Amino acid sequence: MFSLLHVFIAVISFRSNVVSYEFQQKALDECGIKKGCIFHPDGCKPPKCLLAFTYNFTGEVIEYEISSFLKENLSNRYIAIGFSDDQEMGNDSVIYCQASRNMDPEIGLGYTTTKAFKKIEDVITVKKMLQNLETEIINGTMTCRFLQKIWDENPELHMKSLYIPHYIFLVNGLIDEQSIKHMMHMTLNTTGSLLIAVSFICVFIAENGKWTGKNFPKGIHAILGMTASIGAFLQPIMGIYRCTPKHKLRILFNCAHAILGYGSFICAAASIWCATYPPFSYKLGVNEDYGIVPRSLIITFWVITVITAITLETLSILKNQLKLYSTNAKYNYLQVESSTCNSHWIYSHCPDFCFWFGIYYSSIRF
């Protein structure tokens, strides 16, 4: 007799399309008889499920099969399984199935740290633990089927023994999408700070290191510029020492980061305005030296800034409207009955179209 008592599973879904009907129907017929099955969303029936996951114990190995529909961007996608002794993925082992650009889907092994994911590059080690049976993308559906050896504890690879109770996490999505955005954000921010430092040096050289901004508008221009520069220098430093996304103080960092960024931008804009826009610019002699060029540059800058902001905001709104699946679910903790489980618990919280489902894995027997 097959019984599944407890499993904890986290599922992150970024697109709302269906997994292939054939796979889900076959798995559904064998659920609770030959294998354990989990479909996302919970309680769904083929062909309306977004993700399908099945597992079957055979001797010293487990056969897994995961299937997820990929509406777009078939390259650079992944599905992963995490194994943990608590409800967080830190210093825990991971099995992943990925489809990279110009490459067939492949199976791999890795582990998480507190802030990053590390691949195990040793092919021999991976082959000792995993045997790839099938990895393919057909009609937008990514399917991975493989055997996993029921391993003992291996501290070097952050592997905990699968003979003891543990939590399982499932996740799918884009590879490195957020990392690229974050890298660009940090690079541009740091580059801007370096350019500001160079401009400071140029000003000090031009004025022989003497303060000449006692009178308006020179004083206001200098103070606003100094304030903006200090804020720009602090931003990359704050980014380096930021807390993790799930930390309870992260909201304070987000607020401080945003306030400092917007405040610095406003001070910088006001400082430049004092130097380029009449009547202030007349007192600084900018117009006599450079004519209408400074004013034209600042007007062009503001026009580009406004157009960019409107365009990005419009694209963001359209992107949200195109999402085919959303939820109004709030925090909840439910106990429900299942035909394949004696009992299981579902804990769901759905920010940003992410869905968390939990079933704590205790024992499986035939």
Automatic annotation (TrEMBL):
PANTHER family found in the cross-reference section: DOMON DOMAIN-CONTAINING PROTEIN FRRS1L (PTHR46902:SF1)
UniProt-recorded name of the protein: DOMON domain-containing protein FRRS1L
Gene3D superfamilies per the UniProt record, alphabetical: 1.20.120.1770
GO CC terms: membrane
UniProt GO BP: regulation of glutamate receptor signaling pathway; regulation of postsynaptic membrane neurotransmitter receptor levels
Coarse class of the protein's main subcellular location: membrane
UniProt key word Chaperone: no
A Pfam family that the UniProt record links to this protein: DOMON
SMART domains: B561
Coiled-coil residues: none
